[in-house]
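Please go through the sequence line and token line underneath and see whether the fold suits the sequence. See right below:
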Amino acid sequence: MIHESSLLDAADRLWEELPGHRVEILNGSIVVTPPPDGPHQQSCYEVAYLFRDAGAREAGLRAIPGIGLWLPTGPSDCAVPDVSVVDADYQDALVEYNCYAPHVFRLVMEVTSTNWSNDTIIKLGVYAQANLPVYVVVDRAHDEVLLYTNPRDGKYPDPKRYRRGQTVPVPESVGISLDLSVDALLDGDD
């Protein structure tokens, strides 16, 4: 059993030994996810580009794939969302281990892969406890997009569900007006 004080060290060693894998600490446990497939990465980068094209920079925001998020759920807990929309000055909120404080995150998005339950159960809970205002799950296993908003008492209310042919409106609280195509999110392109 790894002691709490060495979780970050163990995660760092795994990161070095498993290039391309995502290493996170969720609820006090190390979670290693294999490298994503092409459509997964296409979805992530497409979303980042869409935010930029919609004026994220001018709105004081950045859409960034794969940056660390420090979580309040444990002394070493940290996640790496697939895409994050953060305040432009997010770098001032560095905590440690290349992870940033949750208050600079306006939206996080996860695209499901082999780790479906991590995104739809574990991260749903830790992101709500971190009080992240918007959590988008691109659920490729069930061919839908889930939009979670406004957590209360460490839990998100039931999500809004979007199917193919629909668009997901980015909530106003993010600070930018944008509709995301469900098809593009699920497939990685239009």
